[in-house]
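Minutes, project check-in

Agenda point 3 was the complex the collaborators sent over. CS summarized: four entities, 310 residues total, and the question is how they sit relative to each other. Sequences were read into the notes so everyone works from the same version.
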Amino acid sequence: MKLFLSTYVNKIDSKGRISLPSSFRNILSKENKKEIILFKSIKFAAIDGCSYERINTISERIDNLDIFSEDQDDFSTSIFSEIVPTSLDKEGRFIIPNFLKKHANLKNEAAFIGQGNYFQIWHPKSALEKQKASRERIKANKKTLTSILINKSND
Amino acid sequence: MKLFLSTYVNKIDSKGRISLPSSFRNILSKENKKEIILFKSIKFAAIDGCSYERINTISERIDNLDIFSEDQDDFSTSIFSEIVPTSLDKEGRFIIPNFLKKHANLKNEAAFIGQGNYFQIWHPKSALEKQKASRERIKANKKTLTSILINKSND
DNA sequence: TACTTTCCCATTGACGCCCATAAAAACCCA
DNA sequence: TGGGTTTTTATGGGCGTCAATGGGAAAGTA
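CS then shared the predicted structure for the full assembly.
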């Protein structure tokens, strides 16, 4: 199974283009090799991105939320109405729409951070802070990454 | 079951390459013979490493968490975005990314320390100190290696 | 026309692939 | 068991390819 892994910082050029990291490009399916989907992260000043296929999974999960809950409605509105299908150029670059750039405070560069089945685009500095905060929350819960990564048995 | 055992000190060459010890290479599965995973040790100035397979188990676990929960987000950020998938060349060498080299104070050589299901990469001197400290802690805790090695049923 | 987006080409540096060598380890056979 | 031979390892270096980036020109859009 292919996953979006690791972190890469790339530049936004004068035309607004930015390269999707090579290892992320390789994850896109052959049918939709040049297509990705972007949308505003609900919780963060960041952009979520994924392959076209992933949208189906997300929609299923939202469907599984209680149909009468406010959450369900909020999520589907936030996500689906603001989805931006985006295509890569021959070199693997794409253009981040202005409203998304604004949402994530992007100017000259952006950090791509792998999240397994999807990825996020952050202002590089915010990305570092986010990673640090996540680590510390996990530590505070007395869980160690190593134990998660290494131990065969889950507890 | 094959385990990462023993300690080896290898050189980092001018291109930044270092050989994964042969005995460690033999532990990697045939499917992913040329792929390992590196990540920052949380507790030490060292790098943790393991075979690529673990990723699959880990990602399944994370994927099964509630997609909107904070845990899910923390785990996927800390793990997926900070993991460094790395491939070995034909000779069994790989490149340690700069930010990891910095974290472990590595320059011209590095010590590989077997830890059973995973391994660590240390600055050779720090590795010695670490091993010494570990032995002394065990002594202080009045545990003997023999007791651990002899008794079958310890948990 | 003015502006935006895509296509194409060029550059640079990083990395992968290949071959070479010396030392160590494994092997073999008397 | 010892000594010689073969194989494996760790290491070094050349070179071609690819990724990230930049910019000009063409094509599309308003």
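Noted in discussion: The first strand of chain B starts at residue 7 and ends at 11.
Follow-up: revisit at the next meeting once the mutant set is ready.
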